[in-house]
């Protein structure tokens, strides 16, 4: 019986310790975000978006992502694109999604490039354009790993190519090469 009580007390103590550490980190991020630190704004945006350590608040996540994105934070730009695409915490707005995905994609963010492929593939906020979609996906594939990369390759090889002729595929590949040459990081 005493062993169970000791284990319960130790478990509770560990839980209190772990939560106090987490709260201290969140407080540090929160203060840095309020002081204008883009990385902290992004991290707090993620916490609010998913409700990790804080109550989920998509409006606060959007606000923090906007602040970080305006400062050029690539992750915040990409996440804003996702939220605008899905209409989470803000009204769905494909033109804003396109804007933020493009900003992040032009800085080499593979997830934003992959999402631009989706917008162009389905004509969401832009005229449907398989050549441009293929170009963005070709660029994204270089930055993706594992299952995400395999899924993107399958999308390119099975879906996009089924809507394109060989000349369009070659043009898209050429566009990707030209983009890489003009966007060396």
UniProtKB/TrEMBL annotation:
Superkingdom of source: Bacteria
Protein name listed in UniProt: Sel1 repeat family protein
Lineage of producing organism: Bacteria, Pseudomonadati, Thermodesulfobacteriota, Desulfomonilia, Desulfomonilales
Pfam family, one: Sel1
InterPro entries: Sel1-like, Sel1_AlgK, TPR-like_helical_dom_sf
Gene3D superfamilies in the cross-refs: Tetratricopeptide repeat domain
Residues in the signal sequence: none
Coiled coil: none
């Amino acid at each position: 019986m005493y062993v169970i009580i000791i284990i319960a007390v130790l478990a509770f103590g560990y839980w209190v310790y772990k939560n106090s550490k987490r709260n201290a980190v969140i407080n540090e991020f929160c203060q840095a975000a309020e002081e204008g630190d883009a990385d902290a704004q992004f991290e707090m945006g993620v916490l609010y978006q998913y409700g990790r350590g804080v109550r989920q608040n998509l409006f606060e996540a959007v606000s923090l992502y906007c602040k970080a994105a305006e400062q050029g934070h690539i992750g915040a730009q990409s996440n804003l694109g996702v939220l605008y695409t899905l209409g989470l915490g803000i009204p769905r707005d494909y033109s804003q999604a396109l804007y933020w995905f493009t900003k992040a994609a032009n800085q080499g963010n593979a997830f934003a490039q992959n999402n631009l492929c989706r917008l162009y593939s389905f004509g969401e906020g832009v005229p449907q354009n398989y050549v441009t979609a293929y170009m963005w996906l070709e660029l994204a594939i270089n930055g993706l790993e594992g299952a995400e990369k395999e899924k993107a390759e399958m999308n390119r090889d099975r879906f996009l190519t089924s809507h394109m002729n060989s000349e369009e595929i070659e043009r898209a590949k050429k566009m990707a090469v030209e983009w890489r040459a003009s966007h060396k990081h």
